[in-house]
Amino acid sequence: MSFIKTYRKHLMTVGLIWAGCLILFVFAYMIALAPQLKSKKQVRRQLAETKRIYDSAIQANKEDTKIRLKEEIKNLQNKLNDFVIEFEDSANLIFDISQIANEKKVDSFSIGTADDRRGSAGVDLKYLRENNINISFEGSFNQFATFLNTLERHRPVVFVDNFKIKRSQKEKSGHKVDMKLAVIMRKRQDG
C-alpha cells in the first residue's frame, strides 16, 4: 500500500497518458481506418460479383452448357407451339373444331371468326395476336360437356373466352349454345 501512496502522482500521470493515447487512437481509427474498411468491404463485394459474372461466362462458353441451353430453347419452343398457332394453320383449326363438333353429333353447328381482332390479352404484341372464333350449336348438356372437354385438350390450346347456354323450350330439342373461343396466333411476318 505504501507503494501506491508513494507513486500515486506517477501512476496518475501514466493513467492520464494511457487514456489520452487511447482517445487519440480511437479518433485516428475513426478518421483513417474505418473508411478504409468500408471501402475494402465494397471492393470485396464488387470482386465477388465480377468473379460470379466471369465464372458464368466461362461456364456459358463450355460446349456441354451450349448443348444444354440449345435443348432448353428447343423445349421452350415446343411448349410455345402448344399454345400458339401459325397464321397459315388458322383454317385448319376451324376445320378441326368442326370435326370435333361432327364427332360429338351436335345439331345446327356454325362457326366463324370474330371481327374484334386485337393483341393478345388486349395488349398490342409484335409477334402474337388473339384470334376469336364464334361457335353456336344445339345439343344436350352432355354433348356440350364432351365438346368442351375435347376443346380443352386440343393442341394448340383453344381458350374458351365465354359461353352462353339457352335452355330449350321443347322437350326433345337440344339447348342453344353460343361460345366465344380465343386462340393465340403468330402474326404474319412480312419479308
Task: Provide structural commentary.
The protein is an alpha+beta fold and 191 residues long. The chain has 5 helices and 5 strands, in the order H-H-H-E-H-E-E-H-E-E. Strands 1, 2, 3, 4 and 5 form a 5-stranded mixed β-sheet that branches. Strand 4 and strand 5 (175-186) form a beta hairpin.
Please sum up the structure shown.
55% of the residues lie in helices and 21% in strands. It has 191 residues and is an alpha+beta fold.
The pLDDT mean sits at: 82
Q: Spans of 5+ residues with little confidence (pLDDT < 50)?
A: none
Number of helices: 5
In percent, how helical is the residue content? 55-70%
Gap from first CA to last CA: 104 Å
Q: How big is the Rg?
A: 38 Å
Order of secondary-structure elements: HHHEHEEHEE
Q: Which term fits the overall shape?
A: elongated
Structural class: alpha+beta
Instruction: Tell me the fraction of residues in β-strands, as a range.
Output: 15-25%
Count the beta strands. 5
Please give the largest β-sheet.
Answer: 5 strands, mixed
